[in-house]
Amino acid sequence: MSASGATLTATFEGVRTNPAPQEAGFRIGTSQNALSTTVYTQDLLNAASGSFSAEVASLASLTTYYFQAFMTVWDGTAYKEITGSVGSFTTSGTSPVPTGNGYLSGYEIPAMSWTGKGATGTETYGNTKWYSYETSSSTQKAATHTYSYNGKIYRNYTTFVDKTKKAPLWCAFVMHKTAYPDNDLGRTGSWHQDPAFGSDWQQESSGSGYSRGHFVASNYRQACSDGNKQTFYNTNQALQYQTGFNDGVWNTLENAVVSHAPTGRDTLYVVVGTLYKNSTTVGGVPVPSHFYKLLMKCSFNTAGAMTAASGCAYLFTNESHSGESYSSFITTINAIEQETGIDFFANVPDQFETTAEASSSPLW
After folding, report:
1. d(CA 29, CA 35)
2. Between the N and C ends of the chain, which has fewer C-beta atoms within 10 Å?
3. CA–CA distances in Å: residue 313 to residues 91, 162, 236
């Protein structure tokens, strides 16, 4: 058993061998009533009793599958199919819902001085909950938003909001093409109050020359409408210069992250954030001086243990960068840590984190 495959085995007895069974194998699916995929055994079936097996690949991790063995045998007058009972198994892997310290155990979460779990509540979009986390500061706290898709609960993102900025200082999230598939939904929401924060924590409109720059892009969450709508919470944006930045180099980098989101046992962990260095204000709201995007790609073995990690970062001033490539703005995660004083990807094991955070080599 692994995160993406399994070996199925069945036993049989009392089978006619003249003529031999015509075919045998397994039907498999994620529902007992929908065994829609068939895999055939490669074993030679020429005995009245014995066993056969088949390899099943390309399965989703942490998913329960149901299967049923079948054989087509001669009953003396015609071939007929006989079937076994329905069994089940669950693939391994790293859960989209971290264990330990709740959602703060995710590899994407920076090290912060949390003072405890705050409130929980029902999402505006989706039949799941948000969870808030307090700090020692009355003007800074975080919330994780979740949604349900295909019977499983996924963390959408965790946003760390500063009330004085009316915007997040960072948002942390996961990119994986299987866990967060692209179902080509487009933009299904409009900007809306985040239910995890009071209205006095949230910015209601953009300013002259600035747009609402997504931290978790709309096209990062295309699995279902609920997940996409949550990317339009007010706490997932900050004032970002539009022409030549939001609609240019930043958008190009967003699309590159989508196209290079991993599959299989690799996962990309992302943190998007802002700096406020001698920043101005528009409509009473501080304007970030910089935006950054941190990338940490991690590999895991079949037991779910991390085996490798690579990382890099991009740092942009909040102004037009018309005609420039995002690759010109590459730097190290360490450099952003020095600017912010934040220890990013703190849950990644040190033997991988240290090297990955010192690299300025692109991931693609």
Report:
1. 4
2. C
3. 33, 22, 19
Distance from the Cα of residue 123 to its chain's centroid: 18
Q: pLDDT of 152-204, one tens digit each?
A: 999 999 999 999 999 999 999 999 999 999 999 999 989 999 999 999 999 98
Are the beta carbons of 128 and 148 closer than 8 angstroms? yes
The four Cα atoms 341, 344, 349, 351 give a dihedral, to 10 degrees, of -60
Tokens of 179: 């866990």
Q: At which residue do the structure tokens 């954030």 appear?
A: 273
DSSP string for residues in 196-252: TS-GGGS-----TTEEEEESS-GGG--S-HHHHHHTTBGGGEEEEEIIIIIIIIHHH
Q: CB-based contacts of 77: which residues, under 8 Å, 6+ apart?
A: none
Alpha helices in the chain (DSSP H): 225-230, 250-259, 333-340, 350-357
Q: CB-based contacts of 192: which residues, under 8 Å, 6+ apart?
A: 124, 229, 232, 233, 234
Per residue in 127-139, pLDDT (tens digit) is: 899 999 999 999 9
Q: How far is CA 143 from CA 119, 133, 204, in A?
A: 9, 6, 19
Determine the Cα–Cα distance for residues 105 and 284; give it in Å rounded to an integer. 35
- What is the tens place of the pLDDT at every residue in 281-299? 998 899 999 999 999 999 9
Cα Rg, the chain, nearest whole Å: 25
Q: What is the dihedral of CA 319, 322, 323, 329, to 10 degrees?
A: 10
